[in-house]
């Protein structure tokens, strides 16, 4: 399942309709008074979070969203109809951010690059949540409302107020329950392929995975969503490699599944590097409940795997180490058994209010 995790769109609420200039026409009354009604209000731009979507891909094809104008007012003091609101449906987990603005004084002397900041305009965490981001313009006044004691036949009317417009960024964080983390080549994609019907790309080289993948795991009649993200290397939280951009995707996971390649040069060091990157990224990633699995057991044999597992326990203080092979599926059932009870614990931040403390994010 591929998905676009960010999109930039243009939104515009509707103009208010113009007020009418009209005079009463009645039999035997030559000059009737003004009776032009007000124009209708322009349509709003509303965002609504819906279930069953987990991609922003539609926004790649449609980038401009305009709500309808209000209708003009009419004679006999009839008001123009309001323009239809435009409801833009987004997946739960979408955030709306303002267009990035450069932060003054952050210019890099060497390459002239700058840091950017974006304002969080909306954060959709529940199905059905609705936010009116842009309000349509009010309708203009009809000439009836310009009537005064000195001007009984005004020809003035309001033209209607303009709508508002802006570019916004949609950013989708996966609402995965479990996030797979590990160094490149640890076997994350192989594992997600083993336990879900996803067909993630697997390769014997680093950074085979370049985009997050989602898969649904069905285990003992329970379903949960597993996210595979690109591998993390030293410095990932500062932007080395490609992993940092994707750490945001696992901020809302309940559980992290930390996968370690047992055939790597130094599995204990690999564990530490990834742990350090999670801590350096912030956002509470290092405090999430975590399961640690030593992978590629099929290549090393039980005894050697047990040795490395004890090293992890003793040198890195990991309490439980699962020994698995993502390729053959050995040990994976026990690992999934351990995941299930952890899913019922409240997710981090769920008790608190808004996830304000999230890391600032800049567009790529
Ligand atoms: N023998 C064996 N090989 C494995 C196992 N898991 C993964 N591999 C191999 O290890 C290599 C890397 O696997 P991937 O699943 O692509 O690793 P990844 O962690 O997704 O890597 P990135 O996407 O680069 O971060 C591939 O050649 C896989 O075939 C396993 O359990 N046993
Ligand atoms: Mg991968």
Brief overview:
The protein has helices at 58-61, 188-195, 244-247, 267-281, 297-300, 302-316, 332-343, and strands spanning 6-12, 45-50, 64-66, 86-91, 94-98, 101-102, 116-117, 120-123, 130-134, 165-172, 178-182, 213-219, 222-228, 255-261, 290-295, 321-323.
Explain this structure to me?
The chain is α/β, with parallel strands linked by helices and 364 residues long. The protein folds into two domains: 1-172, GTP1/OBG domain (Spo0b-associated Gtp-binding Protein, Chain: A); 178-344, Rossmann fold (3-Layer(aba) Sandwich), CATH 3.40.50.300. It is built from seven helices and 16 strands. The protein has helices spanning 58-61, 188-195, 244-247, 267-281, 297-300, 302-316, 332-343, and strands spanning 6-12, 45-50, 64-66, 86-91, 94-98, 101-102, 116-117, 120-123, 130-134, 165-172, 178-182, 213-219, 222-228, 255-261, 290-295, 321-323. The strands form four sheets. A six-stranded mixed beta sheet has the order 12-13-11-14-15-16, with helices on both faces. The protein has a five-stranded mixed beta sheet with strand order 3-1-10-5-8, with no helix packed on it. It is elongated, with a radius of gyration of 29 Å. The two termini are 22 Å apart. Mean pLDDT is 87; it is low at 349-364.
């Amino acid at each position: 399942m591929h998905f676009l995790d960010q999109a930039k769109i243009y939104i515009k609420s509707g103009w208010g309709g113009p007020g009418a200039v009209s005079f009463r026409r009645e039999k035997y009354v030559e000059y009737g008074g003004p009776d032009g009604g007000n124009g209708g209000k322009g349509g709003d731009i509303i965002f609504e979070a819906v279930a069953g979507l987990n991609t922003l891909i539609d926004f790649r094809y449609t980038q401009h969203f305009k709500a309808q104008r209000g209708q003009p007012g009419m004679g006999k003091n009839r008001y123009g109809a309001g323009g239809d609101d435009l409801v833009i449906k987004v997946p739960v987990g979408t955030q709306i951010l303002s267009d990035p603005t450069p932060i003054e004084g952050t210019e890099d002397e060497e390459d002239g690059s700058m840091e950017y900041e974006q304002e969080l305009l909306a954060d959709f965490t529940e199905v059905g949540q609705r936010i009116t981001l842009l309000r349509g313009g009010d309708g203009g006044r009809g000439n009836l409302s310009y009537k005064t004691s000195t001007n009984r036949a005004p020809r003035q009317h309001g033209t209607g107020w303009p709508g508002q417009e802006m570019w916004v960024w949609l950013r989708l964080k996966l609402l995965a329950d479990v996030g797979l983390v590990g160094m490149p080549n640890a076997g994350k994609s192989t594992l997600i392929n083993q336990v879900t019907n996803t067909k993630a790309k697997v390769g014997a080289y680093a950074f085979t995975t370049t985009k997050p993948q989602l898969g649904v795991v069905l285990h003992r009649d329970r379903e949960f969503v597993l996210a595979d993200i690109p591998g993390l290397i030293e410095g990932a939280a500062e932007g080395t490699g490609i992993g940092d951009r994707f750490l945001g995707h696992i901020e809302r996971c309940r559980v992290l599944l930390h996968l370690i390649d047992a055939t790597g040069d130094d599995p204990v060091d690999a564990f530490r590097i990834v742990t350090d990157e999670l801590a350096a990224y912030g956002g509470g990633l290092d405090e999430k409940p975590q399961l640690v699995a030593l992978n590629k057991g099929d290549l090393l044999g039980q005894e050697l795997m047990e040795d490395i597992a004890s090293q992890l326990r003793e040198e890195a203080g990991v309490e439980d180490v699962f020994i698995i092979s993502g390729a053959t599926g050995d040990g994976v059932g026990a690992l999934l058994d351990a995941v299930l009870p952890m899913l019922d614990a409240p997710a981090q931040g769920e008790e608190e209010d808004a996830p304000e403390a999230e890391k600032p994010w800049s567009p790529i």
